[in-house]
Amino acid sequence: MSWGQAATQAPANPNGDFLVANPPNDGISSLSWSPTGNFLVATAWDGDVYCYEVANNGQAMPKASTKHEAPVLCSSWSSDGASVFTGGCDNIAKKWDLASGQATQIAQHDGAIRHMAWIEQVGLLVTGSWDRTLKYWDTRQPNPALQVQLPERCYALDVTHPLLVVGCAERQIQIFNLSNPQVPYKQLLSPLKYQTRCVATFPDRSGYLVGSIEGRVAVQHVEDNLQSKNFTFKCHREGTQDIYAVNSISFHPTFGTFVTAGADGNFNFWDKDSKQRLKNMTKCSAPISCGNFNRDGTIYAYAVSYDWSKGGDNPLSNTPNNIYLHAVNETEVKPRPAKSGIGRR
């Protein structure tokens, strides 16, 4: 993909990536790509949801929008790319039909819906809430198909069927095998000492990554006989004093390497198998609140947007909210031979 000189050179964009026109007006909470085409959905704290179409030249055109009555925290696409699911602080999830523009309520919790995922293999939407429940929804029915009690509020969630991992408050980790979703396959504490911010399941389903507010990632395997492969590494830090949250982790769909994005304004590409950083990008002027690869891994979308980690009176709270599209170079994400790299520290 050749995007020429289309990228802005604003201070918020030191990597020269393509700036998406008409971004949300408030903090950007999630970015989700369609599984069938280059359509990107962004959700925001003002309740707005936007859908953009990304052309081959990198031009992103706003296509449609919808709204919740409270901050929207998460989004997920249906497997056919026809609908988008959104949830947030109004305690409901909606299904937004892109062809008709209609958004209808399809889920309800007693607290904010923090994360969700469409599970194509079983035709269900899973929602994780601050009400300490996990619910599975047949979107044609008003009541959940299944409800599971969590030990704490849901802070993070990811699925690679049949592996589902939920990161909860108080460092609780719940691992589910979706062949038996009623009970956790394993329950444990995060190996990281501080609050879980994000999780990402391995493409091969053998494990998961955990990112925390302490600028550290844990590489974890599910089965006991693989525990020797577990390790943690530091990232999104400057020296010993400036430590930033890992806000987002996403696996590359082709190579199985991954990207982390943090409150320091950096996004970096990593290879867990060779234990090394593949590419260190240049720091942006504000936190990266979320990010995601498109379906074939040729574009990485990320939001430079205040993540509220420093409170409402921080100068960064007035930062413009922007979405950038990074044209992924294969050298940034292709695995490399092992060397002394990101091992346990």
Task: Walk me through this protein's architecture.
This protein is mostly beta strands and 345 residues long. The chain has one domain: Methylamine Dehydrogenase, Chain H, CATH 2.130.10.10. The chain contains one helix and 30 strands. The protein has one helix spanning 330-333, and strands at residues 18-19, 28-33, 39-44, 48-54, 60-67, 72-77, 83-88, 92-97, 103-108, 113-119, 124-129, 133-137, 146-149, 154-160, 163-168, 172-177, 186-189, 196-201, 207-212, 216-221, 231-234, 237-238, 242-243, 246-251, 258-262, 267-271, 276-280, 288-293, 299-304, 322-327. It has a four-stranded antiparallel beta sheet, with no helix packed on it. Strand 10 and strand 11 form a beta hairpin. The longest helix has 4 residues, at 330-333. The radius of gyration is 19 Å and the shape is globular.
Features:
1% helix; Methylamine Dehydrogenase, Chain H; WD40_rpt; four-stranded antiparallel β-sheet; 345 residues; single chain; repeat; WD40/YVTN_repeat-like_dom_sf; WD40_repeat_dom_sf; WD repeat; mainly beta
